[in-house]
Write a structure and sequence with these properties.
It is a single chain. This protein has 233 residues and is an alpha/beta fold. The radius of gyration is 18 Å and the shape is globular. The chain contains seven helices and eleven strands.
């Protein structure tokens, strides 16, 4: 799987200009719940993302590129520095070679995993379609030891449970930074590729000359080959 490789290269190039600090990997140490809670502001200790602060949520997978495994932080890891922080999450996944006809299912599985990560005593609002994630962390969660280290560690451990995932890197971003706006075009492109995959594997026999995704196939290595492969089955 290489269709997201160029976006991974762009992401890593952007992040190279920022100081990235390792977090303490503690495994799946935060409790997860099936349903996110609703939280009043009076019960909140700190909010991550959410208007008017910036946010980015980016998940990228490859079977051919390598990267450093682990959990990392860009910005201040002190959750008590403010009651409202801009926030971002970048997840890189190294996978086994995934068959073409399973690629769309895999991308959907990663998105489903992301939205299912609901932490105990934390209100989660996330939108893969709008590239953001917003968390309200309760005073109770903070008393129970919620931290960026634990959050990143749990996210990594959960993503590595996905079949065919060999390893993951999780980078959390906190505080005001131009990095959100730099990563946004990449997130928009990733969404377009994911939507195009849906069309490719939806059994639609499209003529490349008239297809709305023709220009995207010119830009993304491997996408046109996937389409031709799907049409031939």
């Amino acid at each position: 799987m290489k269709i997201f490789d160029e976006y991974i290269k762009q992401t890593l190039n952007i992040l190279e200009s920022y100081e990235k600090k390792p977090l303490v990997d503690q495994g799946a140490c935060l409790g997860l719940v099936k349903k996110s809670i609703f939280m009043m502001e009076k019960d909140m200790a700190v909010e991550l993302g959410g208007y008017p602060k910036e946010s980015i949520n980016l998940i990228l997978a490859t079977s051919e590129m390598d990267f450093e495994e682990g959990v990392f932080m860009l910005g201040d890891a002190d959750l008590t520095s403010s009651d409202h922080l801009s926030f971002g999450k970048v997840v890189l996944l190294l996978t086994e070679d995934i068959p073409d006809d399973k690629l769309y299912d895999f991308t959907q599985e990663t998105l489903l995993k992301d939205v299912s990560l609901k932490f105990e005593d934390v209100m989660l609002r996330t939108s893969p379609a709008h590239y953001y994630t917003n968390l309200r962390i309760s005073k109770k969660a903070m008393r129970n030891g919620f931290s960026f280290d634990k959050m990143a560690s749990t996210v990594r451990a959960e993503f590595e449970k996905i079949p065919n995932v060999k390893k993951a890197q999780v980078l959390l971003i906190a505080g005001d930074s131009p990095v959100y706006r730099q990563l946004l075009p990449i997130a928009e492109n990733v969404k377009e590729v994911t939507v195009a995959l849906n069309h490719i594997f939806d059994g639609i026999d499209m003529d490349c000359g008239s297809c709305v995704w023709n220009e995207l196939c010119d830009e993304v290595e491997g996408l046109r080959e996937l389409h031709k492969s799907a049409q031939s089955r």
